[in-house]
Amino acid sequence: MVNTRKPQPPEKKNIGNVLAQTIKRFGQDVVGILIVSTAIITALNILGLTSGTVANLWTDWIVNGFGWGTYILVALVIYIGLLILFRRIEQFPRLNLKRIISLELSLFSMLALFSAFFGFSVDRAHLGLDGGVIGWGLASIFKGFLGNVLATALLLVVWLLTTLAGIGFLLPLSRKLDRYFNRVLQTTVNNDFSQDSSVESDLEEKQPAPTEGTYPQTATPAAAAPTRQLALPPMDLLLDAQTSTSDEPFIHAKAIQIEKTLEEFGIPARVAGYRVGPTIIQYAVEPGYVEKVNEEGDIVRKKVRVSQISGLSRDLTLALGVDRLRIEAPIPGHSFVGIEIPNTSSSLVRLKTILNSVEFKAKPAPLNLALGLNVSGAPVIADLTRMPHVLVAGTTGSGKSVCITSLIACLVMNNTPDDLRIAILDPKMVELLRFNGLPHLMGKVETQLDRMLGVLAWAIKEMDDRYKKLEAVNARDLEAYNAKMARRGGEHLPKIVIFIDELADLMLSAPDSTEGYLVRLAQMARATGIHLVVATQRPSTNIITGLIKANFPARISFMMASSVDSRVILDANGAETLMGRGDMLFLDPETAGLKRAQAVLVDDREIENIIAYWKNATQTETPAEEPAPWEGLVPSMGDDADDLIEEAIKLVRQEGHTSTSRLQRKLRIGFPRAARLMDELEERGIVGPVESGGREREVLFDDPPDEPEAY
Ligand SMILES: Nc1ncnc2c1ncn2[C@@H]1O[C@H](COP(=O)(O)OP(=O)(O)OP(=O)(O)O)[C@@H](O)[C@H]1O
Fold first, then answer.
1. What is the CATH number of domain 642-699?
2. CATH code of the region 248-342
3. Of 453, 432, 501, 382, which Cα lies nearest the Cα of 645?
4. Is 56 in the pocket of ligand 1 (CB under 6 A)?
5. For the chain, how far is it from start to end, CA to CA, in angstroms?
6. Whose CA is nearest to atom 26 of ligand 1?
7. How far is the CA of 76 from the centre of ligand 1 (A)?
8. Residues 595, 374: contact at Cβ < 8 Å?
9. By three-state DSSP, how is residue 571 classified?
10. Radius of gyration of the chain (CA)
11. What integer pLDDT is reported at residue 49 of this predicted model?
12. Interface ipTM > 0.85
C-alpha cells in the first residue's frame, strides 16, 4: 500500500492536508451517490414506476439516444457508482479504468450491432428501438466504409473482445491459451526428439529457468511461465491472509506530530508521504532548508543534513509516544528520510500471500525463499541458490524459529522430495520437531550434539563426492550435472539444505570442528547444491566467528539487544530498534542494502497439511524409518570419541599440515591413540589421506585468521 500526499504550501500545511483529504473523500462519496441515484430514477422512469416533466424529458432523450441499450447503460452506471461508493471496502473490486473503458466500448458496439441487425433503420432509431440514434449513427459510419456484411462482422468482433476484456476474462484466457500451446509444443518436441517424452517434460517442469531484469506485471511469457506443477502441493493447503484496514486518522496525526517535533528542534521538514506495511508505517520525510546569515551579511539557504534528523530518533520516539522507532536515512532510491513506527492495526504475513504474488511468480527459482512483506506490503524474496547460505540471528523470542519453519515450508511447497532433501538440526528440541515425517527430511530432526556433528561431517563427504561426480562429467554445477544426467538417463542429485536452529550449542561444545565444517561447506558447497541456513541468538565472537561471518554474506537479523549486537550481524545499527515477533532486517548480498520486512508466520495446520500432502503423494507413511545417510558417521563421534579430538582439530588447523608422530609429540600421547585420532580426523574430512612417499597429511580446513577488530 503506497500513499503519497501532494506537496503542501508551507503555512498551515498539516491542517490543510487533512482538510483536503476529507473534502476529497466526501466529494467522491457525493459523486457516487449522485451517479447511483440518477441511474435508479432513470430506471424507474423507463419502467413507468415514476414520472415527472424533467424525468420524462431526460428519459426520452436517453431512450432516443441509446435505444434498447438504455437498460445496459443504466446497469453499467449503477455498477460504476457502487465502485466509487464502496472503494474503501477491501473485498469490493477496485475501480479499474481500463475495464470501464472496455465496457463502454462494448456498449457502443452493441448499440451499433442492434442497428445493423435490424436494417440500419433511422426511423426505428428515432422510436427508441434497436441501438437508438447513437447506435444507428455508429453503424452507418461502419457501413459507409465496409458495407453491410463486413461492418456487422467487425462490430461483432469488437463487441466480443471489449466485453471479454470488460468482464476481466481476456487476461486469464490469454494465459490459459499460452499454457496450452506451450504444452502442445513441448509434447511435439519431446515426441520428435526423445525416446522417453515424460522424462523430458518432467525435467522441463522441474527446472523453471530463472529470468533476469524487471518484473513484468501482466501476461508476458515470464509471468505466465511459473504455473504450479501437478506434483507440487496446491495453494489451498495454506491459510489465507487476513485483511486489515489502515487507521488513517492515526497515520495523519503522527505525520503532523513528526513535522511539529522536527520544527521544535529547528529542523524544517515535510512529511511527503507514507507507506503502510503489515506491522510498520514508514513516513517519507523531505528535509527542508534553513536560512543562515553568512559572514558578508547575506542570507543563504542550506539544506537540512540527514544526520540532523537521524540524530533525533529518541526525541521522536518520545514525542510520538511509540515503543520503538527506526530511522532509515535516506530511503534507498529516494531523496527522503524514512521514519518507521509500529502500525496500530498490524496483520500476520501468510506464506500464501507471497507464493501467489506477481513478484514470486515473475522470478521462478526452485529455492526462492519467501521472507516476508516489506514496509509497503510488497513481498521480500531471495533465491537461496544465489545467496547461497543464510545466517539468522535475534534475541530470544524474536522470531528465528518461526522464520526457519516458514523457510522450510516455502521450500517444500515448491520442490518435490526428488529435487530437494533437507536436514534439520534443532538442539532446542521444540519448534522444528514438527517436521519429522516429512518425506524431504533426511533421517529425523537431529537434537543430539554428537549426531549433529555427524550430519555436518556427512555433508562434507557428500560435497566431496559430488565434486568428483561433477568433475567426471565435466559439469560446472549441480544444475548442469543434472541436465547431463537427465539426457544420459543417469542419477539425479537433489539439492540439499541444512537448517541449524541454534549454532551456539554446537559452537560451545565443539568449536573447532563446527567452525571448520561450516566454513568449508559455506566456501565450497554452492556448486554442489548444498546450502546452509544457520540461526543463533548469541551474536558473540565465539559463536559467530570472523570466519563464519565472512562466509555467510546473506544475513537476517531479528530484534537485537543492543546496537553492538546489531553491528556484529549486519555491520550496521538498526536491529536494536526492531519490534520483535518477526520484524526483521535482511542484508541482501546482491544489493548489499538492508531491507526491513515482517517475516512470514506459518501455522501448525499449514505444516500438518503440507506433510500430509507429501506423505500421501509419495505413499510413504513412515519415511523417517529410512536410515539417515550420516548414520555411519555418528557412532565414532559419540561415546567412543576421543576426548582429545577437539584439541587435535585445533592443532592441525593451526599448523596447516600434520602427521601421526606430530600429533603424538604435541598431545603427549602414545602412537596407537595418535593413529586412531588421525583416522578420525580423516573420517571427518579434516585431513586428507597420507601423501605418497611420506607420513605428512594435508589439512583440508583453513586456518582461522585473527578475529576482526570491528567487534
Ligand atoms: N513472523 C511472525 N509473525 C507474527 N508473530 C511472530 C512471528 N515470528 C515470531 N512470532 C511470535 O514470536 C514468538 C517467538 O518466536 P520464535 O519462537 O520464532 O522466537 P525465537 O527467536 O526462535 O526464540 P528462541 O530463540 O527463544 O527460541 C512466536 O511464538 C510468535 O508468537
1. 1.10.10.10
2. 3.30.980.40
3. 453
4. no
5. 38
6. 396
7. 49
8. yes
9. coil
10. 33
11. 81
12. yes
Say how many Å lie between the CA of residue 47 and the centre of ligand 1: 62
> Does residue 77's CB lie within 6 angstroms of at least one atom of ligand 1?
no
pLDDT digits (tens, 9 = 90+) for 479-530: 899 999 888 888 889 999 999 998 988 888 888 888 888 988 888 888 899 9
Copy the grid coordinates of residue 490. 543417469
Calculate how far, in angstroms, residue 242's C-alpha sits from the geometric centre of ligand 1: 19
Q: Which residues fall within 8 angstroms of residue 488, CB to CB, at 6 or more apart?
A: none
DSSP one-letter code for 431: G
Lowest mean pLDDT among 168-172, 351-355, 418-422, 655-659: 168-172
How many other β-carbons are positioned within 10 Å of the β-carbon of residue 77? Answer: 17
Mutate to test the pocket of ligand 1, among 402, 578, 586 (most ligand atoms within 8 A of CB): 402
DSSP string, 631-648: GGGSGGGTTTS-TTHHHH
Question: How far is ligand 1, taken at its centre, from the CA of residue 284, in Å?
Answer: 29
Is 557 labelled a binding residue? Answer: no
Closest by Cα among 668, 665, 667, 669 to 695: 665
C-alpha cell at 687: 585431513
Q: Is 327 in the pocket of ligand 1 (CB under 6 A)?
A: no
**Which of these, 403, 428, 676, lies nearest to 558 by C-alpha position?**
403
**Ligand 1 contact, 397 CB (< 6 A):** yes
Distance of alpha carbon 170 from the chain centroid? 28
Superfamily of domain 368-625: P-loop containing nucleotide triphosphate hydrolases (3.40.50.300)
SS3 510: coil
- In percent, the amount of the chain with pLDDT more than 90 equals 19
How far is 236 from 512, CA to CA, in rounded Å? Answer: 45
Q: Using alpha carbons, select from 294, 235, 243, 309 the residue that is nearest to residue 606.
A: 235
Residue pair 408/435 in contact (Cβ under 8 Å)? The answer is: yes
Q: How far is the CA of 401 from the centre of ligand 1 (A)?
A: 6
Per the listing, cell 510498520 goes with 280
Does residue 710 surpass a pLDDT of 50? no
Say how many Å lie between the CA of residue 495 and the centre of ligand 1: 28
- The pLDDT score that the predictor gives to residue 7 is 36
Is it true that the peptide bond before 672 is cis, omega within 30 degrees of 0?
no
Pocket of ligand 1 contains residue 394 by CB under 6 Å: yes
| Number of neighbouring beta carbons within 10 Å of residue 671 | 11
CB atoms within 10 A of CB 612: 14
> Which sequence spans correspond to the domains of the chain?
2-168, 172-227, 248-342, 368-625, 642-699
Binding residue per annotation — 288? no
In the block, cell 506491522 appears at 279
State the DSSP string of 239-298: PPPPP----HHHHHHHHHHHHHHHHHTT--EEEEEEEE-SSEEEEEEEE-EEEEE-TTS-
